[in-house]
Structure formats: C-alpha cells, structure tokens
C-alpha cells in the first residue's frame, strides 16, 4: 500500500479534479522556512468561515478559515483528513499540542477528541474531507481500521494525488471520483498507521453489522432497542457492541447521534428554526441539540450557521 510515486498530481477525484490550486498557501515557501518560529498567542480578531464543496455518499468536503476563537474540543465519527493551505493550525490531540503548517496534512481518527485554533494572529485555513469509516473498510477488504498515531504528515510525505484531491473541493464527485478519493485516503492511512503487534483477530461480521448501521441511518430520530439490533443482524448484543466500533470507529449510540446531527445541519442550512430542528432530528429539546452539536463540531449551532459561506 505504500505510495512511492511523487508525480500523481493529475489524479482525478471528480469531473475535473486536480485543476484548481488553493490561493494563499505556503507550498512554494523556501524548504528551510519554519513557520513554528512565529508561533504566538491565539489571534484576537474573530472571523470564522465555512464553505462546503459537493460531497458524495460517505464523503463530506469542507473549506474552513479561522481567526480568533477556534473550535472547542469535539469529535467526529469519521476520519478527518485535511490540508492546511495558509497560517498555522494548532490543535490538541491525544494529550499533545500539534502544529500543522501550510502544505502538511492532519489525520484524525474517528471518535478522537480534538480542538483547533490559530497559532498566529493571521489565522489559518484548510481544506478537509470527512470520510465514512465504512468506505475505508470496503477499500481495505474488511481489515481493521488503521490508526495514525502522529496526526501531522509533513509535506515531503504527503501523497501528491491525495493533496490534489484536497485542493479541489468544488468539482462534483462522480462514482469513480468517490472510489478514487477513498482509495487514496485509505492508502495514506495504511502507510502512516502505527505498527501494531500481530495477534489473533476475529473476522468482522461486516454484512450483519452493516444491517445494524443501515437500520439506524434509515431514521436516526428513532431509538431502536438492542433486541431489534440482534434481530436484524443475527448477532448477540455483545458482539454488536464490540465489532461495531472496530468496523466503523464508533459505537451504535454515537453513530445514531451523528446521523441526527447530519439531519439537524441540513435543516439549519434550510433556515428551519433551532427549536423545530431539534424536534425533527429527534433531540429531547433545543438545549440537548446545542450541547451535542458543540461536542461534535466545536461550535454552537448559531456560530456554525453564521460561519457558513
């Protein structure tokens, strides 16, 4: 799975992907320059901007620019693979402060808590894909999800084909582009994954687990019982609990919450009031939605909606 090619910039992730370049990036800066020497306190000028590109099943693409107040600690149920294109991105991950510079990748595993602030007064910007772990499972033929212990990948180790896909988030993703992006991301995850000691592994019951997953996703506002999961999968509840996280990077409960939040975001983007959004997405009330939203995206629903381009 190792990528030794350094000439993959023309990879096509969509109907024309690879043509665009991010302006304002630091990829042409001198190789010896080290922006870490400019690290200062977090900037004080507020200004967050979020812009979503066309996505595909299991893939979400986002461009974010932040100055001043950043993202509060939060976690996703997806892989997050981002390319910094200006400024210094600073975040805490697994108990350590990290800095991601222009042209570098950051890779976050599902369900790992992190935050995100600007390392300098100029703020920072990045483009990112959120990738469903189930797609990674399919790309790897059902192997355990790879875990990248060091979340920052230096410029010299970045797969240029994946970088080209991350630079261009505006072209639609067709079916082949979706597969290409997934394979490139999976290759990067495997290449940089922590070395694990070999041991006895139990094969995952992926088809059965997928039925549980589909039942939850069909209507996340509905809270299903363990007996329903057992009936639809043919597995006992302990196997479901153990293998669901191994297969998809999170628990069934967390997976349901994330699908509720997906629905909430769609409603908020359509201008639905927050109280009504909470009800339609299956949350107890508006306060419950707000708490879960901030825990997941690092912003309140109001701040998230205001930052949308």
TrEMBL record:
Lineage: Bacteria, Bacillati, Actinomycetota, Actinomycetes, Streptosporangiales
Compositional bias ranges of the Basic and acidic residues kind: 1-13
Positions with biased composition (Gly residues): 15-27
Keyword Repeat: no
Name of the featured protein: AraC family transcriptional regulator
Region described as Disordered: 1-37
Keyword annotations: Activator, DNA-binding, Transcription, Transcription regulation
Domain HTH araC/xylS-type: start-end pairs: 210-307
């Amino acid at each position: 799975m190792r990528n030794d090619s350094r000439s993959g910039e023309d990879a096509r992730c969509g109907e024309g992907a690879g043509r665009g370049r991010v302006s304002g990036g630091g990829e042409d800066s001198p190789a010896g320059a080290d922006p870490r020497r400019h690290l200062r306190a977090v900037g004080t000028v507020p200004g967050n901007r979020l812009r979503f590109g066309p996505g595909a099943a299991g893939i979400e693409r986002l461009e974010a620019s932040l100055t001043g107040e950043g993202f509060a600690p939060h976690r996703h149920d997806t892989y997050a693979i981002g390319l910094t294109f200006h400024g210094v991105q600073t975040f805490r991950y697994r108990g350590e402060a990290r800095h991601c510079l222009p042209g570098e990748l950051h890779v976050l595993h599902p369900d790992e808590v992190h935050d995100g602030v600007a390392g300098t007064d100029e703020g920072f910007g990045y483009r990112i894909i959120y990738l469903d772990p189930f797609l990674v499972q399919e790309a790897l033929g059902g192997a355990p999800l790879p875990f990248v212990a060091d979340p920052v990948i230096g410029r010299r180790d970045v797969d240029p084909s994946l970088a080209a896909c991350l630079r261009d988030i505006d072209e639609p993703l067709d079916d082949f582009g979706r597969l290409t992006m997934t394979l490139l991301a999976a290759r990067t995850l495997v290449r940089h994954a922590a070395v694990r000691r070999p041991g006895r592994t139990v094969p995952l019951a992926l088809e059965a687990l997928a039925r549980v997953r589909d039942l939850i996703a069909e209507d996340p506002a509905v809270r299903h019982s363990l007996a329903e999961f057992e009936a639809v999968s043919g597995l006992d509840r302990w196997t479901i609990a153990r293998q669901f996280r191994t297969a998809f990077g999170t628990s069934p409960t967390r997976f349901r919450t994330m699908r509720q939040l997906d629905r909430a975001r769609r409603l908020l983007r359509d201008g639905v009031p927050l109280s009504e959004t909470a009800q339609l997405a299956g949350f107890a009330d508006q306060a419950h939605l707000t708490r879960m939203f901030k825990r997941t995206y690092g912003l309140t629903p109001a701040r998230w909606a205001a930052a949308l381009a």
